[in-house]
Design goal:
Mean pLDDT: 93
Low-confidence stretches: 1-24
Largest sheet: 11 strands, mixed
Order of helices and strands: HHEHEHEHEEEHHEHEHEEHHEH
CATH superfamily of the largest domain: Periplasmic binding protein-like II
CATH topology of the largest domain: D-Maltodextrin-Binding Protein, domain 2
CATH architecture of the largest domain: 3-Layer(aba) Sandwich
Strand content: 15-25%
Number of strands: 11
Number of helices: 12
Number of domains: 2
Distance between the termini: 27 Å
């Protein structure tokens, strides 16, 4: 990836400057009360498998601007690795994580059953789009990220007329040696992709896909690096954000919303019950439900979940996209089996 141009840097700086950075004395009462308590804690740690490190650091800076004197430390990894780290912390009786964000809904169902989450409903959730509200009736977790996963291709290597328009078209032998995809053992989103497409087309879909010898990475967005380098021409199951951000930085990428449906991954965020900085964690949950967070997401081409913040440039609004996906129960029950089938079929 190349860096931002001077014009893009100026535009980004101007837009980020427009994000509200209210001083403490202008905070609404519910945030002010949490801010006063959080100042005694100082900082929090965010385990995130939802956003890339660059995006997470931008969120951390915006959080610190809104709440002077506080700091958000971002620990970025794939969702399965983030969950493994959190689980190891809990098993060892170590309290390090204040906020846990994953693309695998099953993580939260399990943590809730085990009594390891802290209930909290942010007041700011009332301003979110309806599909992001009411994730859990007991408010053990909330939805701040709805990832859209689709197809992307290198438009210097593939003509628009020849590009795959559906998940099924990726099985065409002409794509042999040209595909790239993440791994459900690391990426929660690819686990959901496996559950959804195997429900739609059977596991035979992936058996056929293997014959085209896709390059298997870890993160759902690993294919973007390969597309930029021209090592592969088509990526499947990549987030809408990664190729659009890469395109804005001068790379020859085009996205395709598959005709048989774009994968929507509803991704929760929660506070572990043993969070060492609970006031900070609750304040972060308020921040993530507010418009400042949505503006940062838009800057990095992630779909914002506040109605007053428009979709990123080049992305369709939710109501213009045919969405497919899996239920929380299907994800929890299906992803472990998908990981094993994946390894058996692809050998990795």
């Amino acid at each position: 990836m190349i860096g931002l141009t001077k014009r893009q840097l100026l535009a980004t700086a101007a837009s980020l400057a427009a994000v509200r950075t209210a001083r403490a004395d202008t905070l609404p009462p519910h945030e002010q009360a949490l801010y006063d308590a959080a100042k005694r804690e100082g900082e929090l740690t965010w385990y995130s498998g939802q956003v890339q490190a660059e995006t997470g650091e931008a969120v951390g800076r915006a959080f610190a601007r809104r709440y002077p004197g506080l700091k958000a430390n971002v620990v970025r990894s794939t969702s399965q690795v983030a969950f493994q780290r959190l689980s190891q912390d809990m098993q060892a009786g170590v309290a390090q994580c204040d906020i846990f964000s994953s693309t695998d809904y099953g993580h939260y169902n399990l943590l809730k059953r085990e009594g390891k989450l802290l209930a909290y409903k942010p007041v700011n959730m009332d301003g979110m789009i309806p599909s992001a509200q009411h994730a859990d009736p007991d408010n053990m977790f909330q939805i701040y990220y709805i990832g859209l996963y689709l197809i992307a291709y290198n438009n210097q290597k593939v003509a628009a007329a020849d590009a795959p328009k559906s998940w099924q078209e990726l099985l065409d032998p002409k794509w042999k040696g040209q595909l790239a995809v993440g791994h459900p053992g690391y990426s929660g989103a690819i686990g959901v992709l496996g559950v959804t497409l195997s429900r739609m087309y059977g596991w035979d879909y992936f058996t056929a896909l293997e014959k085209n010898l896709p390059q298997i990475g870890r993160s759902a967005d690993d294919p973007v690096t390969l597309l930029n380098a021209g090592e592969r021409t088509v990526g499947l199951g990549v987030s809408v954000a990664a190729p659009l951000l890469s395109k804005a930085r001068g790379n020859p990428l085009t996205i395709v919303y598959p005709s048989d449906g774009t994968l929507a991954v509803y991704s929760p965020t929660a506070i572990p019950k043993n969070a060492p900085h609970p006031a900070m964690a609750k304040l972060f949950m308020e921040f993530a439900a507010g418009p400042d967070y949505a503006e940062i997401m838009r800057q990095f081409y992630i779909m914002p979940l506040r109605p007053e913040v428009p979709p990123p440039d080049g992305a369709l609004p939710f109501d213009k996209v045919k969405l497919i996906g899996a239920s929380p129960a299907e994800i929890e029950d299906g992803v472990p089996a998908i990981k094993e089938q994946w390894r058996d079929t692809f050998g990795v």
